[in-house]
Amino acid sequence: MGVTSAALGETPLHPPEAAAALGSTLVVAPHPDDESLGCGGTIALLRRLGLPVRVLVVSDGTRSHPNSRRYPPAALRALREAEARAALAVLGVAPAAVTFLGLKDGAVPFEGDADFADALGRCRRYLAQLEPVRTVVLPWRRDPHPDHRAVWNLMHRASDGFTAFARSLEYPIWLWEQGERFHRPMEGEVCIWRLAIGPVLALKRAAVAAHRSQTSDLIDDDPEGFRLTPETLTHFERPWECYLEAPCNPNAPR
């Protein structure tokens, strides 16, 4: 099944209060901004319910504007971390609940890479110090962006196949625009469902806008710099968010 707008319109749509079934939640973002784009509404719903949310941002985000003189890597890393904290504060997440792993943007390692063992150890240490968490929310395992795939794999290995969590959900980011057939979920691999976020959609939009380096001309001295286009942002302005869940449970959330 392809993740297309037409196909998504046929997937189960659960009301905002169904977020309560997720319980305490860990959100894992490959880059600063993925947490707001992929599941900002869900985060806001969970926090409105008083449920704990922890956020792990894996890469430093410094590849977005590699040629900027005003924002060399150290300054860009600090800026993107500040933007993520501001975005998550809008959604109700305190700074103490946000952790930045600081792996190199564009080079999150896979097995066989020289720095994979170190990254795996850092993920394991992070998970070991967490309070018990019911649900982990991750990037889609075959997202077109290699960092997203690498982050899913790192967390899968670090948590021994997500056995530490009652549920693991995955959110698509670049599948909307860049996904080829082999990126898409296979039949029976996952259940696809949506969570309505209408009551907190304005908060999600504000959180996305807080990532000014990615959504505006704040950094204007790098002609090769990355910027989320209005067309891309329309995928994340819908009054619902999409999740892929395995093992497949047609009645999720539960």
From TrEMBL:
Q: Name one GO molecular function term.
A: hydrolase activity, acting on carbon-nitrogen (but not peptide) bonds, in linear amides
One Pfam match, given by its short name, reads PIG-L
Stored SUPFAM superfamilies? LmbE-like (SSF102588)
Origin, by domain of life?
Bacteria
InterPro entries noted in UniProt: GlcNAc_PI_deacetylase-related, LmbE-like_dom_sf
Q: What is this protein called?
A: Glr3049 protein
Q: Which organism is it from?
A: Gloeobacter violaceus (strain ATCC 29082 / PCC 7421)
Q: What is the lineage of its organism?
A: Bacteria, Bacillati, Cyanobacteriota, Cyanophyceae, Gloeobacterales
